[in-house]
Automatic annotation (TrEMBL), chains A, B:
<dbReference type="InterPro" id="IPR014743">
    <property type="entry name" value="Cl-channel_core"/>
</dbReference>
<feature type="transmembrane region" description="Helical">
    <location>
        <begin position="406"/>
        <end position="427"/>
    </location>
</feature>
<dbReference type="InterPro" id="IPR046342">
    <property type="entry name" value="CBS_dom_sf"/>
</dbReference>
<dbReference type="InterPro" id="IPR050970">
    <property type="entry name" value="Cl_channel_volt-gated"/>
</dbReference>
<feature type="compositionally biased region" description="Basic residues">
    <location>
        <begin position="658"/>
        <end position="667"/>
    </location>
</feature>
<keyword id="KW-0407">Ion channel</keyword>
<feature type="transmembrane region" description="Helical">
    <location>
        <begin position="109"/>
        <end position="131"/>
    </location>
</feature>
<keyword id="KW-0472">Membrane</keyword>
<keyword id="KW-0129">CBS domain</keyword>
<feature type="transmembrane region" description="Helical">
    <location>
        <begin position="183"/>
        <end position="202"/>
    </location>
</feature>
<feature type="transmembrane region" description="Helical">
    <location>
        <begin position="434"/>
        <end position="456"/>
    </location>
</feature>
<feature type="transmembrane region" description="Helical">
    <location>
        <begin position="339"/>
        <end position="358"/>
    </location>
</feature>
<keyword id="KW-0868">Chloride</keyword>
<feature type="region of interest" description="Disordered">
    <location>
        <begin position="835"/>
        <end position="856"/>
    </location>
</feature>
<protein>
    <submittedName>
        <fullName>CLCN2 protein</fullName>
    </submittedName>
</protein>
<dbReference type="GO" id="GO:0005247">
    <property type="term" value="F:voltage-gated chloride channel activity"/>
</dbReference>
<dbReference type="Pfam" id="PF00654">
    <property type="entry name" value="Voltage_CLC"/>
</dbReference>
């Protein structure tokens, strides 16, 4: 089906192109050098023609999705592998230093503590200086971006470099941090940069919808090449970043993630680390009898406990952030010395894990990877207490302590790592929380498994065969359950299978993950949602687990009824009032105040632009010129009539060519219309009489290259032929004119809801279409409006007040629209104030001037 | 987050309820018996109160999603297990008969052939009689249903019974058929029935959005409990049935599918079939070195070949259906003897698989399950030719033939099974094609694997260790690739892992599946899409793999510009004309023909209802009564004025109380408004003078209980006080009145697009919201319309004409709206015709009467 359709569309496109070419052929066009080549003589000509054709073919192929996805997968696999290599080297260096200094414990301690502190401090400082956006996981921001919000500076090369280097240093320090969240962000940046790079070859990459699709695939690649888990990566990225997932994008994620995981593992084989492609944390559990049916309750217990643990982790993480921000003394101190907090945290954590010190009770010398390998180990450790046959070999040694048993070590490990991870993930470096949580879960599972093994030394099964309990299986279950609980995902189960290379524990894992999710979701938001709330990113919370109240709340219960609107026949003064009285980003345009028939929606910025262009100095000058002209020509005495005429002229085409252009799309700054030099046609008519008048101001428009709006507030410094009172009078007259909407960009089909639409459906539509607001209409008549704010309030209930009240930490991330609108509002507020109090021009004037010097 | 929000909403709802109760409390209400119980004396009272509270608690819990999902999982697991048991018994019986008759080959043949023929014929006949909707896979229909289309009779108990019994018989016959597609359908029916059953306890199950969500989960359960593959089931069902998937429904599928798979496998353990829960087709490949990196090209070859094979299968399957339908002789013959075709096909297939006959060259004696078990076998068969050490044990014996080698057997098996499966899946019994294709794929993979093993007897790897090639791994890869190619899904990879219980071949499987998908998707639609096209189900085709043309086609290129509309101030005559001139299901309502401002959309049925109520005999009687009244009272001579007055009265509220009610939702028949007996108030005023007039007609309105529209065409037989010419005159006058829309159900916010919306975005929006049509507006003005038809045309290009031209086989499945609209159109056409030719009332009258006798 696909093939044939597309073929047909392709044929159609080709036919169309041929037709156009024929039409074009009528008018002779200059041949391009490449075409001329075919006719040129010489030996090299055929070669060159061939090369050119190849080049053209390649360029046409660059536009294909799969080329992009392969490139993305390749780049990300290389990045992932190189980072892993660098991190391993860093960790090796620490171990080497620690091992080399074993003569002096103090020196050992110094080395053990200084190394990570320096790395983390460097990472924090580097990130802070280069791109503060690179801090943290990145998944919350990607979730917001995929919802359609534009986060500034978030997918740039600078951020990419900062994140890669910062993450390498942070993980190289051996702190309990993860690479999975940041990898989602890195892959997205990689996709954005790649598409910008490839767009040099063709324009296919300029489509926004396509870019969003590619970003979704990139998220999958990020997780996929981090764990060498293509399927789990795709599913995890879908669960974590999407609300509604387009199944037609599915293959993109799978394709890119598989390719990326493949290259990532092949690199390991080529580097002789592995003999062939296998799982990252391969386990060797027995296949014939993986677990007993009677062990399932224990797995369920792991699931439920992990649910509580996951919720506690999210809560703890948030409380730490909130505490740090609320304590003003600490806050002020930390703000001043930005690098002190990371250094302090690293110092505490590395001190506690110092192997000869407290670290001996919590396997402090193991790296994250080694910890996981040992936890997934096939043997049973607890048996050691019963019959001493079992030897702790190699890295397993770390779990043994001569004066305690393995249970104590595990409990201490879990408790210490728990708060350490929650604390470490608040450090302002690029870091994720998935891997630390995964390790804690594995340790918890191991603890339960070892307990079970100690309780039933010969297994539960009482039939002929003896099947001993495998604590490693419990560790796998625990890891999946806790990470699932923290992230509110089910696909951690799949990640676990792909990581361990064994799927035999599928049912225990699924049961535990689902129970953990059920518990955690009813207690706390997911870690990523929690961060979204802390950072106050513009995101719509999910509806909870099937609660029926949502089906009964309707739009009419939550909508704002008292909204400001713009009528088709309103005056500029009305626009001004509307702008002053509301902060809505989009204003409804209705036919008239009586009929209230909704015609469309107009952006606030557009209204501002209309207003400011009406009152702009350029226009004033134009009017003045017209006035002089008409005085020259007809000597009309009535100035009001003159103004009327001049307005009509100026609203015609030649007067404002800049504003006639299609305006820039949404979420951009108010287009600062290029200063229109007086049109050539009219300049001819001005004659010599005007030249003396204009020569003083000729350079003025060029100087005023800044935002047009800023100019409105600055009439006085202008060397203007009108005196301020005259200007005011003129502006008053202008404001009484009827608005000409022809130059404004109106959204002709804003999304409409009906009063009876349920909250559930509204939420679905908002999520599906990434809406920001919707108008509520009743048979064409505007009756209200619902925006994300109202919807969020309705979903969160009365919680909004109690919610996370921290200062948005990512001030620079803020939506570009918001800032534009704010600047806008300020300028317009001044305008309004000036006109409200135009009997006191002295006071308002300087205020407007002050603000103008900082137009940002 | 979820927990707290929902809790708050819950609290809010409780507060609201408390408030309402307080308000209610002001007016004393009768206490229910249960409340009175608390005050009644006696020993049993506390018990009964407790029991009642428990009951109330249980009923409140029934509304929870998880209760529903557990019930669904449980029921489906039981169904799946019981069916498997029955199928196994059937197959055992055939084997037993075949084995018992080994003295006489003819008798053996008779038994071998008759048994499946009888079963298939019974299955076909039973399904045909009980519910023809149960025929086939069910996935295409579920895809359509999940898009929001209502397929009649598709989720009923009758269909459920027919499908379960029909499927058991069909699979018990040993034909190459699968149970996975039908299981998706069975699970959906189960969910629909369960929700209808549970709605007896509470009203939560009446919400349509919720039911759709539950159906999506049910699809996952269907696949999950069929293969004991919860993750694969969820993913497969998403890929196969959804266009846009709501991630918030994800857990439902996982939860139910896991529970279902768990119970399904636990039943096997309890039945002592298995020792513990393991995979369905457990493999025992080595873990340390699953495959060599240098084997990857072979896996890629399997993938590409499977892609071509899958496309060929879909093509073959469609061609067989088309051939059967096009050949009129065959068709007429088969239509008459509906059971002959299934019997014939079964006869051919079972003859060819007869083990002592041709079946010996294609392992004919093996059941589907045994075939898979042998194909996934750990040993290498081809070695047998080289060194004779290997013994074919047990069922493996079937693959050996004394006079040929295993390669020949495999090739014959693949070729024969290929067309057999394609043919068998066209039999009108409940059956799927997944499993047969899966088996063919496994055989193909095995063939490649055995070839590789014969080529490299000691493995490719030339290092110290010798790792032999595992042909079983190739079989797994082949199975995933071919089934992925036929269904256009990637998740067959996950299903394969869950089926075999091993994930070690993840990279080969993923590579092969993706390549197979890439090839198959560029050649043919998926099997399910092919069936959708054959059955002409109302479904929107997918956009192809990232073709950029779609981003450049715009709505203005494909929209219908010349559309009929209804204006706010139009007359009934205009309505009539609009209905006559267009077949659109939804008519736009615009303010006026000049402004063209879109106010809403009105259903065709509603327009018809408006028109017929205006011309209804009831209203005429009312008018007559009014006339008599006014003649009695005022003795006005001018009848036209009288009519005018009476109309005004009748358009008031008390005259048409039935139509004032909120009309029934879309996709329903035109509401046959209950015959309104003259309102009590007005009857009082009629007085004695009217009684003689009305006594003859008093019973008339009660008789006219049928569809209102039908009555319009039957004015003559009515014992009416008006003569036909008078009626015509009256109706003409009525038609000239301005339409009163107050009683019509108008969709106040139909979906609007802009001319510049791209085809890609339009497709997305249509898929996301399940739209049927959208109006194209330009600043509030209606300029065109896009419906599914235009969109489909635009996507399919010029293919529509060449498309599958078969008669829709599921005539009874047709959308209920369509039929309602057709009936509607017929009635209105008559009305129109009569008014166009009202100078010939004699001719039109009987025609109208004829049609009325068959109002359906």
């Amino acid at each position: 089906m696909y093939g044939r359709y597309t073929q047909d569309l392709g044929t159609f496109a080709k036919d169309e192109a041929a037709r156009l070419r024929l039409q074009e052929g009528d008018t002779p066009r200059p041949r391009r050098p490449s075409e001329l080549l075919e006719y040129s003589q010489g030996r090299c000509a055929p070669c060159r023609v061939c090369a050119l054709q190849c080049q053209r073919f390649l360029i046409s192929k660059v536009g294909e999705d799969w080329v992009f996805l392969i490139l993305l997968g390749l780049v990300m696999a290389l990045v992932s592998w190189a980072m892993d290599f660098a991190i391993a080297t860093c960790l090796q260096a620490q171990k080497w230093m620690y091992g080399g200094l074993d003569t002096n414990v103090l020196l050992q301690y110094m080395a053990w503590v200084t190394y990570p502190t320096v790395l983390i401090t460097f990472s924090a400082g580097f990130t802070q200086i280069l791109a503060p956006q690179a801090v943290g996981s990145g998944i919350p921001e990607m979730k917001t971006i995929l919802r359609g919000v534009v986060l500034k500076e978030y997918l740039t090369l600078k951020t990419f470099v900062a994140k890669v280097i910062g993450l390498t240093c942070a993980l190289g320090s051996g702190m309990p941090l993860g690479k999975e969240g940041p990898f989602v962000h890195i892959a997205s940046m990689c996709a954005a940069l790649l598409s910008r790079f490839l767009s040099l070859f063709g324009g296919f990459y300029e489509n926004e919808a396509r870019n969003i699709e590619m970003l979704a695939a990139a998220c999958a690649v990020g997780v996929g090449c981090c764990f060498a888990a293509p399927i789990g990566g795709v599913l995890f990225s879908i669960e974590v970043t999407s609300t509604f997932f387009a199944v037609r994008n599915y293959w993109r994620g799978f394709f890119a993630a598989t390719f990326s995981a493949f290259i990532f593992r092949v690199l390991a084989v080529w580097n002789k680390d592995e003999e062939t492609i296998t799982a990252l944390f391969k386990t060797r559990f027995r296949l014939d009898f993986p677990f007993d049916l009677q062990e399932l309750p224990a797995f369920a217990v792991i699931g439920i406990a992990s649910g509580f643990g996951g919720a506690l982790f999210v809560y703890l993480n948030r409380k730490i952030v909130q505490f740090m921000r609320r304590q003003k003394t600490i806050n002020r101190f930390l703000m001043k010395k930005r690098l002190l907090f990371p250094a302090l945290v690293t110092l505490i954590i590395s001190t506690l894990t110092f192997p000869p010190g407290f670290g001996q009770f919590m396997a402090g010398q193991l790296t994250q990877k080694d910890t996981l390998v040992t936890l997934f180990d096939n043997q049973t450790w607890a048996k050691q207490g019963i019959n001493d046959e079992f030897e702790y070999l190699g890295i397993l040694e770390a779990w043994r302590h001569p004066r305690s048993n393995v249970f104590v070590t595990l409990v201490v490990f879990i408790l210490m790592k728990f708060w350490m991870s929650a604390l470490a993930t608040t450090i302002p470096v690029p870091c994720g929380a998935f891997m630390p949580v995964f390790v804690i879960g594995a340790a918890f599972g191991r603890l339960v498994g070892e307990s079970m093994a100690a309780w039933f030394p010969d297994g539960i099964h009482t039939d002929s065969n003896i099947y001993r309990i495998v604590p490693g299986g419990y560790a796998v279950v625990g890891a999946a359950a806790l990470s699932g609980a923290v992230t509110h995902t089910v696909s951690t189960a799949v990640i676990v299978f792909e990581l361990t290379g064994q799927i035999s524990h599928i049912l225990p894992v699924m049961i535990a993950v689902i129970l953990a999710n059920a518990v955690a979701q009813s207690l706390q938001p997911s870690l990523y949602d929690s961060i979204i709330r802390i950072k106050k990113l513009p995101y719509l919370p999910e509806l909870g687990w099937g609660h029926h109240e949502k089906y009964n709340v309707r739009v009419e219960d939550i909508m704002v009824r008292d909204i400001r609107y713009v009528t088709l026949n309103c005056k500029y003064r009305d626009l001004q009032q509307v702008l002053h009285s509301t902060k809505m980003k989009n204003l409804p345009l209705v036919e008239s105040a009586e009929s209230m028939i909704l015609l469309g929606s107009i952006e606030r910025a557009q209204v501002g632009a209309l207003l400011s262009s009406q009152l702009s100095p350029q226009r004033r000058l134009m009017v003045l010129r017209q006035k002089v002209l008409s005085e020259d020509g007809h000597r009309l005495s009535d100035s009001s009539i003159r103004f009327q005429i001049s307005t009509e002229t100026s609203s015609g085409t030649p007067a404002r060519p800049a504003l006639r252009k299609p305006l820039k799309p949404a979420l951009k700054r108010v287009p600062s219309s290029p200063p229109d030099s007086p049109p050539a046609g009219s300049t001819d008519h001005t004659g010599i009489a005007l030249k003396s008048l204009f020569c003083a101001n000729a350079a003025e428009p060029t100087e005023m290259g800044g935002p047009l709006l800023a100019l409105v507030g600055r009439p006085y410094p202008l060397p203007c032929p009108m005196a301020p009172p005259q200007i005011l009078e003129w502006e008053e007259q202008q404001l009484d004119q009827v608005v000409d909407f022809s130059s404004a960009k109106i959204d002709p089909a804003p999304f409409q809801l009906v009063e009876h639409t349920s909250l559930h459906k509204t939420h679905t539509i908002f999520s599906l279409l990434g809406l920001d607001h919707a108008f509520v209409t009743s048979i064409g008549r505007l009756v209200g409006m619902v925006s994300l704010k109202e919807l969020r309030k309705a979903i969160e209930g009365s919680l909004t007040g109690k919610g996370v009240k921290v200062r948005p930490p990512l001030a620079s991330f803020r939506d570009s629209t918001a800032s534009a609108t704010e600047a806008d509002t300020t300028a317009l507020r001044q305008l309004w104030d000036r006109h409200q109090h135009h009997h006191m021009p002295r006071e308002a004037g300087p205020g407007g001037e002050d603000d103008d010097d900082t137009p940002k």
